[in-house]
Amino acid sequence: MHQTHAARLMDGTGLARRITERSAARAAQITRDTGTAPCLATVLVGDDPASVTYVRMKRARCEKAGIVSRHVGLPSTTTTAELVDAVSALSQDPQVHGILLQHPVPSHIDERAAFEAIAPEKDVDGVTMRSFAAMSFGLPGFVSCTPGGIMRLLEEYDVDLAGRHAVVVGRSAILGKPVGMLLLAGNATVTYCHSRTKDLESIVRQADILVAAVGRPQFIRGEDVKPGAVVIDAGYNPGNVGDVDFETAQTRASLITPVPGGVGPMTIAVLLAQTVDAAARQLGLGPDRRVLSCDGAR
User: Fold this and answer.
1) Helix (H, G, I), strand (E, B) or coil at 8
2) E strand or H helix at 52, and its extent?
3) Which residue positions form the known binding site?
4) Annotated binding residues for NADP(+), as ranges?
5) Nearest to 104 by CA among 270, 207, 21, 215
6) Which residues bind NADP(+) (predicted)?
7) Which 3 state secondary structure label does DSSP give 68?
């Protein structure tokens, strides 16, 4: 009879707490040294219930970590030009150190134009083309928060990327594409899969490191997970279900992220750490390499 084992869980909640405690201590130090507290501006267009909840949660975490939160709420009728103006004003405001534009924005708005209005030094969510280029070229800059959190988790659990086959299922601009670039910077061999991929299961079965980022519940079958693989489930679907069939996958993987409690808490931890980093740089202090060591140069 085939002997099954349970994969070791990658505890994003605990690691996120440690990163956030460090960020809070650093925010307090910056406030003491400069008289200015790090400030994150959140911009929300419309009143999508999920987005409203996310923004409220991010603001609460900010305030708990000693980061000032400034909220800009705009009506769903806002035009692209109006949103670009609002974001540009925050980019030019010296009191604001980081900017988070909650996405998705209403469909009539050019989201990319709005993202590009964020000054690169304030792009703590890692959504601009400049940030993507920095991730791709291994240059200093801010990483997309979920990919950054994934890299930090892999590092925490001593996952050696060099020469391993990493398969990323999903190619969104803020998750799939950048996480592939960061894995590549860590010397993994990276395959991107997406809705047009033929014979997805056979590619998934080759993955030493599998990143599921499709936003479809239990889309990746557990039996397609390679024995001993590291499984990162970046999906979060209604009912607290990820993109991977967790029950089966955990009998085959060596390491796996739970949903919730895996990737999710890491995303906000990276956002807070990068906001503190942005404030430090803008206020003339150096970055703290120990808070996050997942920049592309690794």
Assistant:
1) strand
2) helix 49-64
3) 170-172
4) 170-172
5) 215
6) 170-172
7) strand
User: Which stretches of 52-134 are assigned E, i.e. beta strand?
Assistant: 68-74, 98-101
> In 3-state terms, what secondary structure has residue 125?
coil
Angle at 193 between CA 220 and CA 114, to 5 degrees: 105
C-alpha 183 chain-centroid distance: 14
Task: Give the pLDDT confidence of 73-106 residue by residue, as tens digits.
Answer: 999 999 999 999 999 999 999 999 999 999 999 9
Q: Tell me the domains of the chain and their CATH numbers.
A: 32-120 (3.40.50.10860), 145-263 (3.40.50.720)
Cα angle for residues 122, 119, 70 (degrees, 5° grid): 50
Burial of 189 (C-beta count, 10 Å sphere; 0-12/13-18/19+): middle
Residue whose structure tokens are 């988790």: 153
Only one residue has tokens 């990820």, namely 242
Q: For the chain, give percent helix, strand, coil, nearest 5.
A: 40, 15, 45
Give CA separation, 90 vs 39, 57, 76, 113, in Å. 11, 21, 19, 15
What type of residue is 83? L
Paired sense of beta strands 189-193 and 209-212, if any: unpaired
User: Is 125 considered catalytic here?
Assistant: yes
User: pTM for this structure?
Assistant: 0.93
Model pLDDT for residues 273-295, shown as the tens digit of each residue: 999 999 999 999 976 654 444 44
Side chain identity at 42, as an amino acid letter?
T
Structure tokens at 230: 């590291």
Q: How many Å separate Cα 170 from the centre of its chain?
A: 14
Active site residue 58: yes
168-198 confidence digits (pLDDT tens): 999 999 999 999 999 999 999 999 999 999 9
Token representation of residue 89: 């004003």
Q: State the CB neighbour count (10 A cutoff) for residue 198.
A: 7
Catalytic residue among 125, 233, 245, 295: 125
Pick from 203, 153, 205, 209: which is nearest to 184 by CA? Answer: 209
